[in-house]
Amino acid sequence: MSEQPYELERRRTFAIISHPDAGKTTLTEKLLLFGGAIQLAGTVKGRKAARHATSDWMEMEKERGISVTTSVMQFEHMGRIVNLLDTPGHEDFSEDTYRTLTAVDSALMVIDSAKGVEERTIKLMEVCRLRDTPILTFINKLDREGREPIELLDEVESVLNIQCTPMTWPIGMGKRFKGVYNLREDAIHLFSPTHGGKIVKGEVIQGLDNPKLDEVLGDMADELRGEIELVQGASHEFDLQAYLAGKQTPVFFGSAINNFGIQELLDAFAEFAPSPFPRQARQRVVQPDEEKFSGVVFKIQANMDPQHRDRIAFMRVNSGKFTKGMKLYHVRTGKQMQVSNAMTFQADSREHVDEAWPGDIIGLPNHGTIQVGDTFTQGENLKFEGIPYFAPELFRRVVLKDPLRAKALQKGLQQLSEEGATQLFKPMKNNDLILGAVGVLQFDVTAFRLKSEYNVDCVYDGISVTTARWVSCDDPKKLEDFKKKCFDNLGEDGGGYLVYLAPSRVNLQLTQERWPDIHFSATREL
Ligand code: GDP
After folding, report:
1. Contact call for residues 469 and 423 (beta carbons, < 8 A)
2. Which segments constitute the Tr-type G domain (predicted)?
3. Could you say which of 221, 389, 426, 502 would form a disulfide bridge with 214 (CB–CB 3.0 to 4.6 Å)?
């Protein structure tokens, strides 16, 4: 294990958080470009298109302009191994995003300079805060007219409650955008718009006092000097510890579409972003440098390639080292699993993994044996804590058009719900199949995928379920009694857990009052 400290130290695992349209997809692409993982920008979109060719439901994704899937991209930069976890942009898939955020060590927040802090950014920051995830900030679209940079930083500080420290500072904006001043290096990086896959180094002027600056910028040079003096007086100095504790965010300005400001961002990311943190398991804290392997599944994705009908469980390595062919202990089932076909993900391909270190994400092909939240170890009974399932707010009864396809429907619903976007409930009193979701779009995606991947036609009916609560009780006798009396409103979720399906809020409240010893939970721990 002598390479362990080296391999661990150089891992950087992160995700991008933003409000839709701020430029996450563009920035992802440009990070891959500057990271040398792709030759030509366009590959992220190309990747979408290629998958769409083999998978029909991507058509729907394309039509609606949303990205439904999460994927993992690994590349090397400045000797660091960077794992970028992509997250779905649409808010109906926010649970998926929340779970992905449990698998990263830091995040990159993208803000549109014209729009400032938007609603989804606020929500995602709340999730990051649960773990004090360190955040770098990129303020995008400086090539357009936007809001004053000072005002944007103020807004981030007051709305998101995090200290800002500018690492670069924009010189003008929109048509007058001239570049950025790098405060740490005392250097001006001049803007030259370059679209697509070209990386142009661009002219760099060393030193704010350099007379060359006056030649190039004219009056704007003195404006810049004045502004920087102000900014340096008014803002906080970069404090690595405060950043790592999630209390301060270093801020970069640029234009993703113009390949500008990306180099500074990526270099700082490689230098400062944290290597894997210790992880909290229910039993104890697991250190990444422990010799024994452990990992946790944060996402399941079925049918990434319909020709192979595969299901991939995405596992984050939390400690030790994974090697090909290794025997892993599947804690929930108590079974040993020999893993010889685990996958790793590059920007545009996937390959078999030979070894993986903490922070890395590996894909385990399986046929439904693995669930989101499952822990794997080398024998120890550990259970990593994660973001729970949330009680859905929307419910539909699934109606099958061809009764002979009932089995396929069951299988499809079960598998799709294990991916985590929808939840499946089976009432005790009848054979209904009820789908629960947090966003309406999830129902459409499920119907679409049932048709294209399982050849099952279904429609939805309304059903008088308003919300669900997971039910438990310390006293088995009382629980039995409750099950008898409330039989009509009880069911099981996809994982076999007991659920109370409430026809109305009032009903739920009355039932809770009537059964004080029963515990009603709005979330289910993974
Ligand atoms: P996402 O929804 O956050 O993934 O955002 P996208 O990357 O798809 O970008 C949303 C829109 O903003 C697209 O039309 C992009 O071309 C555009 N965009 C991204 N970066 C920039 C930028 O630096 N400047 C300008 N003007 N537009 C940008």
Report:
1. no
2. 9-277
3. 221
Pull the structure tokens for residue 149: 């940079």
Tell me the pTM: 0.81
Q: Give the chain's length.
A: 526
Residue of minimum CA distance from atom 25 in ligand 1 = 141
Q: Would you give the DSSP letter of residue 474?
A: S
Task: Provide the 3-class DSSP secondary structure of residue 443.
Answer: helix
- Separation CA 3–CA 215 (nearest Å): 51
Atom of ligand 1 nearest to the CA of 67: 4
Q: Within 10 A of 190 (CB to CB), how many other CB atoms are there?
A: 16
Ligand 1 centroid–CA 179 distance in Å is: 18
Cα distances (Å, whole numbers) of residue 148 to 112, 116, 151, 161: 12, 10, 5, 19
Atom of ligand 1 nearest to the CA of 18: 3
Whether 458 and 401 have beta carbons less than 8 Å apart is answered as: yes
CA 26 to centroid of ligand 1, rounded, Å = 6
Residue 27 C-alpha to ligand 1 middle, in angstroms? 8
Q: Residue 44 Cα, ligand 1 centroid: separation in angstroms?
A: 13
Query: Cα–Cα–Cα angle for 422, 424, 430, nearest 5°?
Result: 150
Q: Between 69 and 307, name the one with better pLDDT.
A: 307
* Structure-token pair, residue 525: 């721990």
Binding site: which residues?
A: 18-25, 86-90, 140-143
Q: Give the confidence band of 195 by pLDDT, cuts at 50, 70, 90.
A: confident
Extract the annotated binding site for GTP.
18-25, 86-90, 140-143
Place of tokens 């709005």: 522
Residue 405, token pair as written in the block:
């396809």
**Structure tokens, 456:** 């099952």
Q: Is 124 in the pocket of ligand 1 (CB under 6 A)?
A: no
Residue 445, CA distances (Å) to 34, 64, 412, 426, 432 in order: 34, 11, 12, 20, 20
Tracing tokens 């590059």 back to the chain, one arrives at 346
Average pLDDT value over all residues in the chain: 87
If residue 346 lies in a helix (H) or strand (E), which one and from where to where? none
ipTM of this predicted structure:
0.99
Answer yes or no: are the C-beta atoms of 33 and 41 closer than 8 Å: yes
Which bin fits 203, alpha (ψ -120 to 50), beta or left (φ > 0)? beta
For residue 112, report the distance from its CA to the centre of ligand 1, in Å: 9
Q: Is 22 exposed, middle or buried (0-12, 13-18, 19+ CB in 10 A)?
A: buried
Distance between CA 349 and CA 344 in Å, rounded? Answer: 9
Task: Point out the ligand 1 atom lying closest to the alpha carbon of residue 140.
Answer: 23
- Closest atom of ligand 1 to CA, residue 254: 23
Of the pLDDT bands very low, low, confident and very high (cuts 50, 70, 90), residue 89 is: low
Q: What is the pLDDT of residue 346?
A: 64
Whether residue 255 has its Cβ less than 6 Å from ligand 1 = yes
Per-residue pLDDT tens digits for 505-516: 999 999 999 999
